[in-house]
Design goal:
Length: about 300
């Protein structure tokens, strides 16, 4: 399959109203942007973040892509599948000790080579010297950073922002979960001036994301014209922590919204949003949309 064919399967974006009694009571118009429906395997934000990365790899006749993630990374999962479709070899540099789980078994079955590195070495993933040695060790190839977050990803996510603006021209607030901040940076880069963008990091103490997002915008050569902020209270215990309490919230949210959420990102975003709605954080009459960033393959590791 050519990369063009793969990314031409994009159909129109689904944006659904969320009709909870709480939203009626608070007089809010709430919508869910269903990027989880964009593709069964390159799910959610990955579709947009990988699009120009893989087009560039294809155009440059790259033989291998190398990327980074934890053992449950949705990015690694999507990249493994997409690379197989395009006939590009792929190495996943995995943080921490070697483990086996359904996600990694999928990635391997699609031909991804897994390369586990300890956490101390994984932290060197932005160090050019370390990356050079890594490239030589895995047989060469082009580096796609963790989460796919780079200038090419920003360009893809800006297209999502454009689709959202066309579908919801009177949108006041747009919310999305953050890991590396690449998705939020892409939304910022394509946002209309009057939109208020809110990022919800799922990592504890994620203040550093303000700087990371600025850097990503600079790398993509774009200025932010809208206002944006981070809510640092959406981690509920930290990255990938799904305690009994969060699990109960997550499953209850799926019932309320009548859709599936991933345990790590969108379920925490939606949980925190409902808390803020209860606290009247949004003015009466506001139109608010939440980006469902997909990653539903991750549900099976927790259930
Ligand atoms: C399902 C899902 N939602 C949101 C995110 C966060 O995206 P970003 O790393 O671009 O902030 C990720 C992580 O990459 C993800 O897998």
């Amino acid at each position: 399959m050519a990369v063009i064919d793969l990314f031409n399967t994009y159909t129109s974006l689904v944006v659904e109203p969320a009709e909870l009694p709480l939203f009626v009571k608070k007089k809010l118009n709430v919508f869910i942007v269903r990027t989880d429906l964009v593709h069964p395997l390159i799910s959610g934000n990955k579709w947009y973040k990988l699009k120009y990365n893989l087009l560039a790899a294809h155009e440059g006749s790259v033989s291998r892509v190398i990327s980074f993630g934890g053992a449950y990374s949705n990015h690694i999962h999507a990249l493994a599948w997409a690379s197989k479709q395009l006939g590009i070899a792929c190495t996943g540099v995995m943080r921490g000790e070697e483990v086996v789980n359904p996600m990694l078994l999928d990635a391997q079955s699609w031909g991804m080579k897994l390369h586990f590195v300890d956490r101390a070495n994984y932290r060197k993933r932005h160090d050019p010297q370390w990356l050079g040695a890594l490239q030589r060790e895995v047989g060469g190839g082009v580096i796609i950073p963790e989460g796919g977050s780079n200038a090419l990803a920003i360009r893809g996510v800006a297209e999502l922002m454009n689709d959202i603006s066309i579908t919801l021209p009177n949108l006041d607030y747009l919310l999305c979960a953050c890991g590396t901040g690449g998705t939020l940076a892409g939304l910022i880069s394509g946002a209309p001036n009057e939109l208020k963008l809110e990022g919800y990091p799922v990592l504890k103490g994620a203040n550093f994301l303000y700087g990371d997002i600025q850097q990503l915008l600079q790398a993509a050569n774009v200025d932010a014209h809208c206002s944006w902020s981070l809510d640092l209270d959406a981690h509920y215990g930290g990255y990938g922590k799904i305690n009994t309490e969060h699990k109960a919230h997550w499953l209850a949210l799926e019932e309320q919204f009548k859709m599936l959420f991933d345990p790590v990102y969108t379920s925490k975003l939606v949980r925190r949003f409902l808390e803020k709605v209860e606290q009247d954080a949004y003015p009466i009459g506001s139109t608010v949309a939440l980006v469902h960033t997909g990653g539903l393959q991750g549900r099976r590791s927790v259930l």
